[in-house]
Amino acid sequence: MAGMPAKKRNVAVALVGLTMGLLISRYLFTPIEQFRLHSPEGNHTAVVTSYRLWSLIEMLSYPTENKPARVEIRDSQGRSLGSMPVPRIAMARQLKWIEHGAHIRLVGTWNFHDGFYAYWNDDQTRMNMHSIN
Question: Is residue 71 part of a domain?
Answer without folding.
Answer: yes
